[in-house]
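Same chain as my last thread, 660 residues:
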Amino acid sequence: MSSQYCELMVLARSKTPKLTSQMGQIAPRSNLPQEPVREFLDRAMEHHQKGAITKAEKYYKRVLRIDPNHVDALHLSGVISHQLGHTPHAIKLIQQAIANDNKQAVFHNNLAIIYIKIGHWVEAAASSRKALEISPNDAEAWGILGEALAGLGQISDAINACKRSIALKPGNVMIYCNLSSLLTALDRFNEAEEWSRLALKLQPNLAKALHGLGVTQSASGKLDEAEVSFKKALKLDPRNSQTMVNLASIYSAKLKYNEAILLFEKVIEFNPESTESIFNLGVCYSELGEMDQALRCFERTLGIDPDNVDAYYAIATSGKRFLSPEQLQILQELLNSSTISSDKIVKINFALAWQAEKRKLPMPAITFCAAGNNLRKKLLATKGYTFDPIAHQELVERAMNVYTEVFFKDRTNFGIGTEQPIFVVGMPRSGTTLVEKIAASHREIYGAGERNAIPKIVQNLEREANKKCEFPELITNLSRIESIELANSDLEMLKDLSGARRIIDKMPLNYLYLGLIALLYPRAKIIDCQREPRDIAMSCYFQNFSNMQPWSCDLRHIGVYFNMYRRIMAHWHKVLPLPILKLQYEDLVNNLEGKSREIIDFIGLDWDEECLNFFSSPGGVRTASKWQVREPIYTSSVGRWKLFKNYLGTFNAELDASYR
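reply #2:
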């Protein structure tokens, strides 16, 4: 779960064992003299409680020399072996204790904890369930079961287990932290944040809770707040590499690449085999356009971890490398592994699909792609992200009914008269990133990427309406004063991004909100990116989008979505009181300078020759197109659909005749 960097935090364990009341009532285990056993065990436990582990271990061993089946000595020796890093021996000792007395819940709990530590989730779940058979109201056992289920990917069941633990024994801040992480994994961000804050209310300086709060804030798009939380956590726990990685990822998301790279390199300095840091350093380099360095990082990741799916995926989908037959074989084996997570299986399928296409093998490419999309659709549905073609068509119809020429004539004095914002819209994979990169290479234009500002304005308006009115109808209630206030507030954020004369916002979803944009910015300009429908279809279908897009998992749904995009854009061209430049992708790649000049002229600035060197200009590219826009213009993606012409039936059947 990569914000892309969300982690499930393991419950903190005391450095000394939990010595329960049963330890003071040790029953005789054999006919051997008991006095030395009692004396040695008491001394062992005393040292153990003080943290003198090696001394404690010596006395436990003395007990076991006298009575090899002494369950308490076996159990606690196992705990010490675990603390000393001797995991196999620890498991063996605790299993021996259980073989002699399988009615002690604490034995099963500690065995489960060790299994969790080494990622043996099935065994951990089984052990914690045995503890619960003995003691059904054991709060710790429920918490441990929650961790094990989380490791197995059974997130909903894990949440229920954690909540049961809290109900039995409120106040366990580590369970609160775990619950926050689990809820974040299901995108239930408000609940997740609440549990992190409850933990912090009990322990204000708990680094783990601050870290979890940062993870939740990051996943929900609150990057500034997440940055603050991670910095606080890092101040309390300065060598926590995971917090460093997460903070670095926030820097990367905020286009602070130099700060991100420094932090990733710091983690690697501490731990040269930190594959997470090495991989994410590669992601940073790729966003900066340093593709050779990025690929070296991904390959270095595989050198340390030959089964690293993320690294394979990054290399395979870069379009710049053929995976070796041995690497393809590893991916095939991982695909059939029973322990690999569903999201990794999705990535493997897409990686294999891209590699098959690179080899001009349409049938295996489309087969892997379909498998990846089918599973991705199911995973998105578990988080509440689905695509309803009928509902989407109705939404577009409603927008067209609301936004008429009369609607805009009645609101001619709305908004503020700045020319600063430029909105680039289009279907994903239609050339929007290329257009932004060309324009942003101009000395007076800043490319802000896919800003979520306009969709957030709509969400806030819907929240204020308290479901009494929804988009698009609620925009009819927007007053002139409100339009000015909203525009000024958004403009302040734009100024924080850059002092450039023009700022480009290329959020794809803005195509639905151009009517609102016209009310906020009556002097804004729109660039409508269009492309051959079948090329869009295949490019979207082969893309494992990081920003949901559930419609892209099904070729028929892509057809519906495409039709509705073209339909509402045709409507905007008729009624929107803003200038719209229609730009065809194929024309742009075949006439780069001519179309680039047209873009800059439309924006209202003098020509800048740097626009033709877009592939070498600084600045990050945080979209699926980042590999492609880092090289001189190419035409190889034009007509991509022809390799798959025999597999486009469902898309073609849905496509409006006028677009074919």
